[in-house]
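Data card: per-record layout.
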Amino acid sequence: MAIYREKDIFERRNAANEAKKALLERFKSKPAADDPAVQARQAERKAILEARAVREAEKARLKQEKLAREAAERAEREAIAEAARLAAEAAAAEEARRREAEEAERIAVSLADEAARKAKRDARYAARKSRVGRTPPGFSAR
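The structure for this 142-residue chain is written out next.
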């Protein structure tokens, strides 16, 4: 089994210096902005960003078209529903008017029948009153 040995200050200082040197070397080895590889990468990134912007604009345009189409379809459905509702209301009003006319006619017929019965009854009553003092047929006078 290995014995754990803590690093002393000199070893830690040397490790930090080595890390700084490696970082500095990495920074120095970075290509300049005018390097063709860097410019090619920047052009590629720019092309990717432009393509993304075009796709997003197309997506937004399609979304707006879809929303407009849905709004038009919804308005058409509402117009059809409104026309159906108005037609149903008109049919209901016509049916109610027809029923009222039938009821008025039935009442008029009933009143006419009742008036005819009353007239018949009054005629019988008048005939009976006119026969007062006469012997009805079939009876003998004593």
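Known properties of this structure: The radius of gyration is 55 Å. Residues 34-130 form one domain.

See the next section for split statistics.
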